[in-house]
Specification:
- The complex is a heterotrimer of chains A (197), B (173) and C (95).
- With 197 residues, chain A is mainly α.
- Chain A is built from eleven helices and four strands.
- Chain A has two domains: 33 residues, no CATH class; 144 residues, Nitrile hydratase alpha /Thiocyanate hydrolase gamma (Nitrile Hydratase, Chain A, Alpha-Beta Complex), CATH 3.90.330.
- In chain A, helix 3 packs across helix 4, helix 4 crosses helix 5 and helix 8 packs across helix 9.
- Chain C is mainly alpha-helical and 95 residues long.
- Chain C has one domain.
- Classes of the chains: A mainly alpha (197), B alpha+beta (173), C mainly alpha (95).
- Chains A and C meet through helix 1 and helix 2 of A and helix 1, helix 2, helix 3 and helix 4 of C.
- Strand 3 of chain A pairs parallel with strand 4 of chain B.
Amino acid sequence: MTADHHHPAELAPVEARIAAIESVLVEKGLLDTEAVDAIVRNFEDNLGPMNGAKVVARAWTDQAYKERLLADGTAAIRELGFEGPEGDYMVVVENTPEVHNLVVCTLCSCYPWPTLGLPPKWYKAPAYRSRAVREPRKLLAEMGTVIPDGVEIRVWDSSAEARYLVLPMRPDGTDQMTEEQLAGIVTRDSMIGVQRL
Amino acid sequence: MIGSLGTLSINGGMFRHSIERMDPAHYLSSPYFEHWLTGVTTLAVEAGAASVDELERRAGGRFPLSRPDRGLLPDDLTPRKEPRYAVGDEVRVREWHPPGHTRAPRYVQGKRGTIVRFDGAHNVSDIEAHGGGFVTDPVYSVRFASRELWGEAGTDGDVIHVDLFERYLEDSQ
Amino acid sequence: MTSGLDDTSLPRDNGELVFEAPWQARALAMAVALVEKLDLPWDAFRHRLMTEIASDPQRPYYESWCAALESMAIDLELTTPGALDAAAPTEREPL
């Protein structure tokens, strides 16, 4: 193997290893390229925070839905058509004037795919994963979110089956907005808990 | 019914065959042979499927094995469904550092917390990963005070929740 | 001829790339497809991922993912390290 020439067509080792796994498993009939393609497309097209935003907007405008959402997140989220891997056990945690919630997975990067899609790079990084449980207040401030002293911070470490979604507080001045417009102002970061709307 | 992860079957004949198929010069420089090879070949040697001499002959040199790894599985493999604890109970996370990875994050080991939610019984994946099969255990969300976890470096009033298997917990006085 | 994909051809999600590179998408989708095909819980892969991350916390995330996928394929006797070595490409396919 030629060592030191950096050739633009050369693959990074990890890229080559991934290609090798796919090639071997497809050849053995254990993976179907079309099935893999379909999963990629599903992530690109169907899964993402626009789904979670709809859940939040519904909760803001429909009190009965909100109560169902907080009692059984999985079922209420499924009502809107969002379900699937990494969404089988959803717990929705509500921000209030007294409580601010923050979600992390210290052991890897567990994240509710059906409602939020794939996690951002910073969520998977060692710094976020260790600091979210150790010094959430300082971390949030560095990310631009200052939580006042009297407000309790609740951190949720997704170390087992539950996947968490933060229900942010509805911002002031949005009384005239339709549910669809409300969904448009809900950000991914507010549903992880690193941002307040 | 969800099938359990296949245990790594150290079948002597199979393993010997896979070693014979390796080209030593090639595999020693391969990116695949990290912790895996050492661990698996150690098991093979212990199972009598291969000898150190043979491995070294085929490798054309030293073939380092891992140190003896005893006690991968906890003693208690009883599957459980019914929860021992209720919401509001005070518990302590056991101080437990078994070889191999567990789902009890280090930062809560030995710490006291309160049960806030019961999530039903689930498969204990670290048992399964070490060949113990499909064992269920109740799972709880446990709330820890920031001060409990971090002492002076913690913040009064802030709390951290971790989802833990029952077998990681013990009663707290 | 440009090698590699430029940013405009990768999918976006609210202005951010869903996948940083096509091979990451493959790695993710393969893990999902494989556990489905083998009728395993997602947790079976996830636990390996956690183990890999714990063994080398500063390693880039997707390298840990790759290691987890390899260890699963090898432990389940779906393939061998030799076969993976033989199948590894040395060049990216032209677009």
